[in-house]
Amino acid sequence: MAGLELLSDQGYRVDGRRAGELRKIQARMGVFAQADGSAYIEQGNTKALAVVYGPHEIRGSRSRALPDRALVNCQYSSATFSTGERKRRPHGDRKSCEMGLQLRQTFEAAILTQLHPRSQIDIYVQVLQADGGTYAACVNAATLAVLDAGIPMRDFVCACSAGFVDGTALADLSHVEEAAGGPQLALALLPASGQIALLEMDARLHEDHLEWVLEAAAQAARDVHTLLDRVVRQHVHEASILLGD
Amino acid sequence: MGEEKLIASVAGSVERVNKLICVKALKTRYNGEVGDIVVGRITEVQQKRWKVDTNTRLDSVLLLSSMNLPGGELRRRSAEDELAMRGFLQEGDLISAEVQAVFSDGAVSLHTRSLKYGKLGQGVLVQVSPSLVKRQKTHFHDLPCGASVILGNNGFVWIYPSLEHKDEDAGGFIPDLEPVSLTDREVISRLQNCVVSLVTQRMMLYDTSILYCYEASLPHQIKDILKPEVMEEIVLETRQRLLEQEG
C-alpha cells in the first residue's frame, strides 16, 4: 500500500486519532438472560460478544476435575462474516485454538479459582466484526461477562494492543494499522496492581523501543479500565433500582 | 499493595454491619442453606446416591438413605434397594427436596424425608435467578386461580395443576398421569408467563406478587403477556398493588 502513511507529520493516524488515543468503546452487560453472565463490547468497529457459564459441575470426563480449584475453559470463535473475506471455518482452526489458550491463561490469572474446587467455568467469546484488536476486545468483553456472572475475580482484566511506527508508539491498532506489517503487541493488565496477565508479540522490535510500546499499551489498558468500571457501576446501579433497594 | 484500600472481588451491592463489609453479587449460582426447599433434576444414578442438578456450583447429592421408600416404610436400605434405585428416580426426573447439609466445598446434600417432597409429575418448570425468590415460611403455595406452585430457593419454580386429593400411600413416587384439562393448562401457561415477566423486570417472586401479577394479566391474552409493553404495564400494576397493600 504505497503512500499510506500510518502517522502523519502532524501526528494524526489514518482514522484521525492521536498516537495514544483509544477508539470509542461502548459496552453492555447482561445481554443474554439464559447464560450466567454475558456482555457485548464495541471498540471502534471491532465487536465482540462474551458468554460465561458457571461455576458448574464438570460435564464429561470427571478426571479433569481439579481438587483444589476450578477449571477455566475458554473458546474463541469468530463469525464467518467478521472479516473482509468470508471465513470458511469459524472455530477449530489454529488461530482460534491459540486465542482460546491465551484467554484461558489470562483468566486463570484473574479469576479466584481456589474458591470453587472441582467445578468448571466456561467462557465463550465470539467476534462479530473484526477491525483490529480482537484479542483485546475479547478480553474486555469476557471480563464484563465474568463480573455479570458474579464470579469473584482478583481485579478487572483490561487489554489493549499497541504498535510502533516512525519512532512513536501507537495504542489500540485498527485492522489497517495491523495489516501494514509493523510490530504489534497485545497486553492484558490487572490495573489496580499493575500486574501483567498476558503479554504477546510475534514480530521483531528493537529492545530499546519495547519500553515505550509497553508503556503505551499499559496506559491504554488503564484508560479501558476507567471505562469498564463506569459500565459496571451503571449496570449495578440500574439493577438495584429495579429491585427496589 | 501499600494503600489501605479494600477492593471487592464481585460487582454488587454493599452491606455494612459495624465493621463487617459484605458485597453481595447481583446474580450468582445458588448457595445452599440448611432447610431450604429446592427443585432439581436428576443427572446421574450412582452407587447408593443420586446426583441432582440444582443450579449450584456443584451438583447436589441425594443419598439413598435420605429418600423415603414407597409406602413410607422405615427400614435399612438393602442391596435390593440399591439395585432398584433406577426404578424410583431416573436421569431427567424432577424432584422437590429439602437441604439437609452443606459440605465444606459448597456441595449440598438433599433429603426427601417428608411426604410433601418427592418426584414431580406433570407441570411446568421456570428457571430464574435464585436472588429473586423471596424467603418465606412455606414455599409450597396453592393459588386460588386453580394451580399450585413450588418456589424453589435455587431459582427453579414448578407450576402444576392442583391435586384434588392427595394420595398418601404412594409417598410421592407414583406420578399422576391423568390428562390435564384445557382450563388448567391455560391457568398454568398464564402463570408461567407472569413469572417470566416478573423476573424480566427484576421483581421478587412470592405467592402474593405472582397472584397479583396473574390478576393484572387477565385482561390480556396469554401470548401477549410476553410483549415488552404489556409486560411493563402488568408489572407496574403489580408493584402499585403491592405498595398499597403494605402501606
TrEMBL record, chain A:
Exoribonuclease phosphorolytic domain ranges (all copies): 21-152, 155-219
Compartments, as annotated in UniProt: Cytoplasm; Nucleus, Nucleolus; Nucleus, Nucleoplasm
GO molecular function: mRNA 3'-UTR AU-rich region binding
UniProt KW keywords: Acetylation, Cytoplasm, Exosome, Nucleus, RNA-binding, rRNA processing
Gene Ontology BP annotations: defense response to virus; DNA deamination; histone mRNA catabolic process; maturation of 5.8S rRNA; nuclear mRNA surveillance; poly(A)-dependent snoRNA 3'-end processing; positive regulation of cell growth; rRNA catabolic process
Family: Belongs to the RNase PH family.
Subunit structure comment from the entry: Component of the RNA exosome core complex (Exo-9), composed of EXOSC1, EXOSC2, EXOSC3, EXOSC4, EXOSC5, EXOSC6, EXOSC7, EXOSC8 and EXOSC9; within the complex interacts with EXOSC2, EXOSC7 and EXOSC9. The catalytically inactive RNA exosome core complex (Exo-9) associates with the catalytic subunit EXOSC10/RRP6. Exo-9 may associate with DIS3 to form the nucleolar exosome complex, or DIS3L to form the cytoplasmic exosome complex.
Protein known as: Exosome complex component RRP41
Originating species: Octodon degus
Gene this chain is encoded by: Exosc4
From TrEMBL, chain B:
Keyword terms of this UniProt record: Exosome, Nucleus, RNA-binding, rRNA processing
Matches recorded under SUPFAM superfamilies: Eukaryotic type KH-domain (KH-domain type I) (SSF54791), Nucleic acid-binding proteins (SSF50249)
Boundaries of every K Homology domain copy: 123-162
Compartment(s) of residence: Nucleus
Top-level taxon of the source organism: Eukaryota
Residues passing through the membrane, by range: none
Example of a GO MF term: RNA binding
Residue ranges of every copy of the RRP4 S1 domain listed in the record: 29-100
Entry's Gene Ontology cellular component terms: cytoplasmic exosome (RNase complex); nuclear exosome (RNase complex)
Pfam families hit by this protein: KH_6, S1_RRP4
Gene Ontology annotations of biological process type: CUT catabolic process; exonucleolytic trimming to generate mature 3'-end of 5.8S rRNA from tricistronic rRNA transcript (SSU-rRNA, 5.8S rRNA, LSU-rRNA); nuclear polyadenylation-dependent rRNA catabolic process; poly(A)-dependent snoRNA 3'-end processing; TRAMP-dependent tRNA surveillance pathway; U4 snRNA 3'-end processing
Family: Belongs to the RRP4 family.
Name of the protein in its database record: Exosome complex component RRP4
